[in-house]
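Assess the record.
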Amino acid sequence: MADVTEVTGGWTAAAFIVVFVLMSACAVYSLVATWLANRNQGTESAAGYATNVKTTEDFITARSKVDVWKMAFSLYASVLGSWVITSPAIYASYAGLLGLAAYAFACGAPLCVIAWCGGLARQADSEATSLPDFLLRRFGLRIYSEGSKGLFGLSWLKPGQLAATWSALVALFVMGVALLAEYATLGTLFRSFVGCSSGVAAIPTIFMALLTIGYTVMGGLYISILTDRIQAIVSFVLVVFLAIYLAADFDGETPTPLTADQKGFNFYGHSSLFTMPMSLVASTMYSEALWQRVWAAEDELALKKASVISCVFVILVVFFFGFVGFLGLWSGKVGWELDPNLYFFALFSESNSGILDSFAGLMALSCAAMLSEGAADSLQNGITATLSSTLLKGKPLSWTRALVLVVNIPLAIIGSTSWVNNVLNLFLMSNMISVACLFPLLCAVIPGDLAKTYLTEGAVLLGCVGGIVGSCIFGIDQTGNFSDGLDMTFMDNGYAWDYFLCAFLSSAGCTIVGVILSVAYKIFKNRGQLPSSNPEAESNNTADTANASPASDDIAL
């Protein structure tokens, strides 16, 4: 165990006390809500609903139980995390104000995109419990029957299984990297800003993970949404306080006129106009933490209203955090030699050294902790929902509760170690893969018989694989070497717009080819049919065709 004498300094001790109290208060709130639920069983109140979490579907969807404002708070808390205090400022330091504006917009806009797509998904299937489950049902589970041909003619491979499995793997990768990033960022702040050793800095990470896992096990998604409201309100109040403090106390040098790089008129700034919205829309679409809220909204209108409200506040908050760090560098109050993770915090440090030595700095750290807790419990729920709806379908709720512990405790342990920093290098890879798989997913949520008939599971899979292969070929062509090309594609392209555009266009092109092949197959199949010599059999076949789902041809594809 870490030496406790390391945390006895004045501001260091205050950091642990304040952060632990705020995190615990949110956890206690969730426990009280659960206790009230036990006293109000059978009522229609929010607390009454929480006690009725008796099925796995209730646990992972809280279907149609969340109103506009609860949903708006939840979307805000789920999208933002402690990363928002470090990443936008770092990005603005080399992508300029143009890059920062694109980054802020790209953080909020995906909420409206997933609300629109989620509304279409709810229209197409109101009973799905997760994104993989939606795709499983979309591509044939409901029309599969004993003796039917499976995908590609394989009787053991039911329609929809490959698409559902692929989406689950992509979603788990995206959410796993994001959750580890939350753990890593909180530990980094206590190590760099508070000044703790690595062992002591791991304590807040483990503490937060245990708290969020605890109330997630008890109440599932709905309890998480209840805590999101408190986390969102507290964090936003702290943001307002920090903005007022900075406006009143800023004493840096008068900023010089902006250079072209500071304006963002460079490669990174221009690339951000495409790569930031594209990558964040794609990662949002493959985050079950957000899809859970699609099912939880009381109706489609509430979901869309909440997405607009949260979108506006997310954009403002992300821009604020990024601009403060940018302002510090622009004014000369923050030196380039400072740890980039502390660009924002330096303006709230009395010594401008990025070390916790003021009340304002303590409030900034507290804000990071609240944002981190809100994002962490959402991602924990999302990972659980993805695994539960695929691996534990039909199993008792106790299995899903156990899954929360089995999956998230190891992630918390990894997140509290220095090894987690290696995982953060996978962020670009997760964005590239999700962009390569974005177009097929957008097409899959389109309702209607025409889409179900011609957008087959094969076309979706072809689009996903084609997007990844196409981006790899582009990277190899750019570098002239196979291994260097793959490294550039997934690890080192610096969010260059051409790599992301290639991934998206390759995916779209292959999806369209898949649709064309599906249309050609159906035309060929219909032309190859001969009149039956048995009138009775012909009559039965006609009746079966009329009663079949429009997607039934997908079974043989």
